[in-house]
Known about the structure:
Radius of gyration: 21 Å
EC number: 2.2.1.2
CATH class: Alpha Beta
CATH architecture: Alpha-Beta Barrel
Strand content: 5-15%
Number of strands: 10
Structural class: alpha/beta
Order of helices and strands: HEEHHEEHHEHEHEHEHHHHEHEHHH
Strand order of the largest sheet: 1-10-9-8-7-6-5-3
CATH superfamily: Aldolase class I
Keywords: Cytoplasm, Pentose shunt, Schiff base, Transferase
CATH topology: TIM Barrel
Largest sheet: 8 strands, parallel
Active site: 132
Family: Belongs to the transaldolase family. Type 2 subfamily.
Protein name: Transaldolase
Mean pLDDT: 93
Distance between the termini: 60 Å
Shape: globular
Amino acid sequence: MKDVFARLSAEGVSVWLDGVGADRLDEGGVGRLVAAGRVGGATSVASGPARGERLAALAARGATPEEAVRELSVRDLRRACDLLLPVHERTRGRDGLVSADLDPRHARDAAATVAEARALRRTVGRPNLLVKIPATVEGLEAIAACLAEGIGVDATLIFSPERHRQVAAAFLDGLERARAAGQDLAAIASVASFSLAPLDAAVDGHLARSGSPEARAMAGRTALACARLAYETYEAGLAAPRWRALSALGARPQRLVFTATRVPEPGYRDTLYVEELVAPGVVIALPEAVLDAVADHGEVCGDRVRRHYADARRILGYLPWFGVSRVAVAESLEAAGLAARVREREAVFEAVGRELDVCVRSLALA
């Protein structure tokens, strides 16, 4: 039987790794996944607490936790980019990309986001780097501005087809500004990351409170419906004159990345989001646990998106019957996602700060 990852590739699906820790880079786990052809990109590289010579040297220089995290992050981003650079070159920039987090505290400040993206691209210095920009209203301008400067962008925290359409419009705006500025459009990469599991978890919670059999029958269907309608926008965009003009100049489309693919309920098939969102040109980002599940028992049954547009609209049309406002859900998830990222970043600063203190005390005793 053909390998499941080969079957996904044959259907036009790219699999990226969702979450790369420094430990996996150190032990070579990411390199082995890339070499085996299981993953062709990475949606985040996380630098947690680090011991050893790197941290001791930072402590000796008197680095603050923020400075230490920044330096460790840059080092790990470079390593991840270098591991995936052969994929980037082989696919001519289609895959082999690595997404890097920016400071989530800037998510409502377009100017600060662009300034940080500029600095990170310059410091990392790798052609396959993308900067992650939350698709808030303010983030839409930051997305366009970064693309206008030739900075690759991963637009994140997308929870509705409507917001995805706005991201797609910002992408086109950015590329048109890049063209006017004389940028090489072929060198600019962008993806739009549509988040799945949090959307199902939030809507399923509303449906559970309704308690009716009809509401229970709707559980676990919202994220797939929204993702399929986002793909419909992507597909329609490829046929639009505005995109065709940019494509003729070498521009590459802004691919959809389906992320947050660990199912929210244990009763759901753990490979659900992979199997049900197969379509040409998509990226599916998987944490290692889901990657292993796909390798073990994943099934690929051809395109599962394009023939389901009408059904997706029907499903979303039922939600108001159960008192579910998709607008309110998306706004709540965006706010919660930003808050979670701020907490995670602060936790990393605190952990690295503790490690620096240990190193400083050790140096004092030496």
